[in-house]
Structures are given as structure tokens and as C-alpha cells.
Amino acid sequence: MQKIDIQRIKAVLLYILNKMPDRRRDIYYIVKTAFCAQKNHLVEYAIPLFNDNIVALPFGPVPSLIYNILRVARGDRSPYRFCDKEVLSQVVDTISYQDESFSAKEMYDIECLSISNIKCLDAAIDEISNMGFGEIMDKTHGNEWDRAYHDGGNRIMSNLAIAKENGASDEILTYLSETLYFDKVSD
């Protein structure tokens, strides 16, 4: 993972923690907000807001690195077995955890977030913070979640399928498909 990717994930998490209502700063609401912002950015702008795999877990789609960062911030050491310790530490050190709630130890770096990033983050914070657990589950357990969860593999969800399922235009889907293919070829 490149330094810019880590800075963006850090900025996204700190933005959510600085803007999310106090009562909604548990791990579930934070990862669902990040997923919703990612989904909105794919649908609106045909590019991911941040570089992280969305995985299908029992309670719905989760950005895997963001989820692991939050797990480590609350004291779970198991993500260190399969995540880069340096990557985790760079972000974990900026997050506090107490009484099932997370908070930011510092402000987000506005230079790491574009206008479109902020627009999608604000919309996701507003949407998710006003929903209950069951509503969020209903909204996030779509066909792509079902496919990835029951696939038996690594449970990684497709950004293209997420965008398509959530109403992306044909033009957005074509562009996203081409850029995702190019990204795979250039790796």
C-alpha cells in the first residue's frame, strides 16, 4: 500500500470520527459509514474514495483495512498477523477507544480529501447516523454482498458490482470497468 493510500484512509477515518454524532461512534457505524461513502463515490464519480477491499462479513460489507484499524485501536492484536504493522500503527495512534466508542486524537488532514470525498463522506455520515442497526443491515445486504459472502473464497466484493447495484449510470459503469481493468493490468 502506498503512502498516499494510508494518508487517505487516515483522513477518512478521522473525518468520520470528527463529524459523526457521539452516539454513533462504535465500530459498526464507523465501518458502515466508510462503506456508504465508498459506495457513493463509486456511483457518483467512478473512482474509489479510498484504497481498501470491501469484504462481505455476516453483518454486511466492511472496508477491511479500516475495520482492522478499528479492531487494533480497541485492543485486538490479531489483525497484526495479516496486516502491515507499520500501516496499522500510522492510523491507530490517532484514534482513542473507550466504552465501545471511538474518537479522534487529532483533526483530519483536509489536504488528503477532495470536494467529492467530503460530499460523499458528509452524505454517508448523515444517512448512517440516522439509521438503526436493522435498517443498515437491510440497506447493505444486497446481491453483491450475498455473492461474496456465500462464494466460499476471500469474500471480497467487486467495486463494479457495488456501483451497479446502487444505481450507477452506464457511463459510470463503463469508465469504472475500464479503470479497474487498467489497475489490474498495471499491478
Structure in words:
With 187 residues, this protein is mainly alpha-helical. It has nine helices and four strands; from the N terminus they run ααββααββααααα. The chain has a two-stranded antiparallel sheet with strand order 1-2. The protein has a two-stranded antiparallel ribbon with strand order 3-4. Helix 8 packs antiparallel against helix 9. The N and C termini lie close together (12 Å).
Amino- and carboxy-terminal Cα gap:
12 Å
Instruction: Estimate percent helicity.
Output: 55-70%
What is the strand content? 5-15%
The Cα radius of gyration reads: 16 Å
Tell me, rounded to a whole number, the average pLDDT.
90
The SS-based structural class is mainly alpha
Unreliable parts:
none
| Number of strand elements | 4
The number of helical elements comes to 9
- What order do the SSEs take from the amino end to the carboxyl end, as H and E? HHEEHHEEHHHHH
Shape: globular
